[in-house]
Amino acid sequence: xxxxxxxxxxxxxxxxxxxxxxxxxxxxxxxxxxxxxxxxxxxxxxxxxxxxxxxxxxxxxxxxxxxxxxxxxxxxxxxxxxxxxxxxxxxxxx
Length: 94
Ligand code: SF4
Known about the structure:
The chain has 2 domains: 40 residues; 54 residues, High-Potential Iron-Sulfur Protein, Chain A (Irregular). It contains 1 helix and 2 strands. The chain starts with a helix and ends in a 20-residue tail after the last strand. By secondary structure, the chain is mainly alpha-helical. The longest helix has 35 residues. Strand 1 and strand 2 form a beta hairpin. The site of iron/sulfur cluster has 14 residues, from loops.
């Protein structure tokens, strides 16, 4: 193998290694996002979440709660949630 071929081979090796690191970084980012969306939030059963309005608390809907993230997530409670849902952690938007 000539010196020129050796340089090309090592450039390819460096590029392959770099692409591998990018792939690992992307996989870690997806895993962190998955953890943020589930493990750190409260299970629905612990806050008496229901996917429909609570007649005892008229007007208290997820869609008007400060913790609501459109279209179907909550900052505190594991999702998905319904915009017309309710739970004991309801807090009205300011
Ligand atoms: S009422 Fe508020 S805190 Fe409870 S699930 Fe709906 S958006 Fe989240």
